[in-house]
Amino acid sequence: MTDEEREPPEAGSHTFSEGQGFDDPYEGFDLDPPELSVDPGKVDPVDSRVVSDQLDRRQLATEDVDAEELLDVGLSYMQINRHEQAAETFERVARYAEDERLSQEAWVNKGAAHGQLEEWDAAIGAYQEALHIDDSSDHAASAETNLAYAMWESGRTEQALEHAERAVEIDPRFPQAWYNRGFFLLERGLAEDAVNAFDNAMRLGFRNAEILEEKARALEELGEDEQAEEVAAEAEEMRQRAEEEFVRQQR
Fold it and tell me: Where is this region: Disordered (predicted)?
């Protein structure tokens, strides 16, 4: 795979209403949808059409809007891959919310919804709105991390690194921010700094095959071939275990 073909870090990922605390393997965000009144005796509870109909009814109730409940509706839209409706819902939350922190969270989530649709300009705008509210909160760290990814996808690679650096400054214990920083540093040819960033991310609990592969690539560029092979082998073992676990669960 050439450098031009390499995939940047997963983005939006990052942090749908969650700034910190990742499991292994890393899961980008944890969506806990609100309870929906589905009668399992009449409706298959996994029928997303029924779920989306309920969400639509809740979103359209504009009288006395509860911004926190509306945020849950947006997250539930994300869970059933209705990203356009999610983006619209998060924007309504941002407009209605009296609490600036809730409004900021909504803008970050709106950006991630646009990211799922690969609408990078809209995503960038949403993250910038979030940062305009508060550029030093935990949500700001998520906004900067996701903004870095959106910048990368839109071809603004130099700005991507700047925002990745800013995310680490805001929250030095945010592992995804360190991973993104390492990725962008490596793309700029700064392999030694990239290895340090990847190590920081792993120390903070972000350890999966993807980051190990990127670290192996950085070590290769530094001429540390033996260590690179060891790290690459660990990444392959991790991928194989994940595949075996997936097959086991399907049985």
Answer: 1-55, 220-251
The structure tokens listed for 31 are 């969506």
Tokens 């509860």 correspond to what residue? 66
Furthest CA-CA distance within the chain: 64
- Residue (of 41, 46, 88, 90) closest to 68 by Cα position: 90
Indicate the pTM of the whole model. 0.74
At position 137, the amino acid (one-letter code) is S
Residue pair 182/198 in contact by the 8 Å Cβ criterion: yes
Instruction: Quickly tell me which residue has 């450098």 as its tokens.
Output: 3
The answer, yes or no, to whether residue 51 has pLDDT greater than 80, is no
At 114, list the tokens: 């646009």
Concatenating the DSSP letter of every residue in 119-130 gives -HHHHHHHHHHH
Lowest mean pLDDT segment, chosen from 18-27, 59-68, 97-106, 143-152? 18-27
Q: How much of the chain, in percent, has pLDDT values that exceed 90?
A: 65
E strands, 103-229, in order? none
Look at residues 137, 82, 81, 86 and name the one whose alpha carbon lies nearest to residue 111: 86
Structure tokens given for 134: 């508060």
CB half-sphere exposure, 213, CA atoms < 13 A: 13
**Integer Cα distance of 78 and 247 in angstroms:** 26
> How far is the CA of 149 from the CAs of 85, 130, 152, in angstroms?
22, 15, 5
Helix, strand, coil percent values for the chain (each to nearest 5): 65, 0, 35
Which range is least confidently modeled, 11-25, 94-108, 161-175, 212-226? 11-25
